[in-house]
Input
Amino acid sequence: MEAVLQTKGLLSLPSNPKLRVFNSQQGLRQRVSVQKPKTLSGLSLPLNGFQKFQGFVAKPHDFSRQNRGFICRAEAAAAADGQPLFAEPEKPKIFGVDSSTLKKIVPLGLMFFCILFNYTILRDTKDVLVVTAKGSSAEIIPFLKTWVNLPMAIGFMLLYTKLANVLSKQALFYTVIVPFIAFFGAFGFVLYPLSNYFHPTALADKLLAALGPRFLGPLAILRIWSFCLFYVMAELWGSVVISVLFWGFANQITSVEEAKRFYPLFGLGANVALIFSGRTVKYFSNLRKNLGPGVDGWAISLKGMMGIVVLMGLAICAIYWWVNNFVPLPTRSMKKKEKVKMGTMESLKFLVSSRYIRDLATLVVAYGISINLVEVTWKSKLKAQFPSPNEYSSFMGDFSTATGIATFTMMLLSQWIFRKYGWGVAAKITPTVLLLTGVGFFSLILFGDPFAPALLKFGLTPLLAAVYVGALQNIFSKSAKYSLFDPCKEMAYIPLDEDTKVKGKAAIDVVCNPLGKSGGALIQQFMILTFGSLANSTPYLGGILMVIVLTWLAAARSLDSQFTALRQEEELEKEMERAAVKIPVVARDESGNGSLATGPALNPAGGDSSSSSPETTPRNI
Output
């Protein structure tokens, strides 16, 4: 009579005993799950049958113990290569890119296109408004940048910091961008058509008669205050929506590997947006030709362009909403890195103490001052040549398109320039372009009359030739800045030691960037108030530009020699480190399987790995 033994706490034998391989996800620490006792179908187990059962499973158990070292070594070798023991299923790809990555990159590219499309329209329109307005001129720009734009930018960033502490990221994004969209729509359809009713033209005329023409620029801010507000909002769109909102969102949802691969493509896409938006500005600016007499053509053009800006803004919000709701976003570590914060005086002391940082700071300040000196003078000549807002805007549309094409081409050529000629030549291209075109531009302004007969053969006047040369200078200067100057500036930080790198960048951000942007405006304000007008100041501005660019070239030459020496020193250190690395020898164990050296050879403090705690080995089943 066969009796089935009812045991408690003992494992039952499965019908087909098999050796189970360790799961790579669990590693070497296997947990034995205790199952409920089950009776074996078709098999009776006597009281002493458990001992026979042990003998039956002993062989596969011994096999597992004998080859355990081989399995461990295989898993360790795979981990050393950075790959799992068992390959995960490959993710679906489109054009060689993971579909999950494309779901992030394509919307980001569309957002960037829409943002820069709007920025080009706003940048061209703001200049038309403040330069061609009645009772204003290009002389308003230096005062506007210093006394209106800078305080409002500081105030906005303080407000943004406060909002960031109380709002979620999505709420903060909408809270910032929606007022921009609402303002630009309201300006095109409400503020500009009614501007004659609330601009204090009579008060500005009385003050101008009392103070004199040298105060035309500051008083124009009061005269056309709504246009100045548009100017500031357009400037803030570039710094806030592009730098803060877009790049903050892009850095939040992309990994480092994705950023390295796709961020450069955003730069190329930005120039494509310049080309298309320039054509858009050109189209709306030429609408006046098809309108009847007595119709304000610029008001119609402005409504059309601001309507597109609003639609693009709504598209940006829709894309942002879609990404946040339908794209799986990566999780970030909550650990924060400590930032080096330097005050203005600490930054100045650090700038003075390091020759390398001084030269790098000179590059940044010189570019900001130089581009400001030329740009404002050029826009004053541009107004003289194209006094009508539609004509001015049409020319700016062509200017934006040409800038986009030139920058796109220079970005493609920049890699070849760096590879063939090195950092030094690339760093000197931008100041050289500014110097050559600056000499031609100021020469046509100051000594244009002797060139008039020769220019007339080409259908040009000295003023129109100066406008074209100034446009070429701005186009080539900006394209060289985006494709060569900015990469050179960032590359210059790489060979520095960590302390100098962090402190130097903080010092340049605190002191040099604002000084470069406002330095040119302050120089022009001083010249205008001293000599009465921007035209009377032109010879002195040309001389100041030449001195600044020559100083820039000298700093670039000095920085090139220091940069090359640091790079050679860095390469030598790397060669010495590679020569000093000891490669672990693959040893053979008793079973003939190759394995990495363990124990004191690779882990001196760890002792013999084979004598680790029992928990690191599989439990006996």
Notes: The beta strands are 93-94, 97-98, 586-588, 594-596.
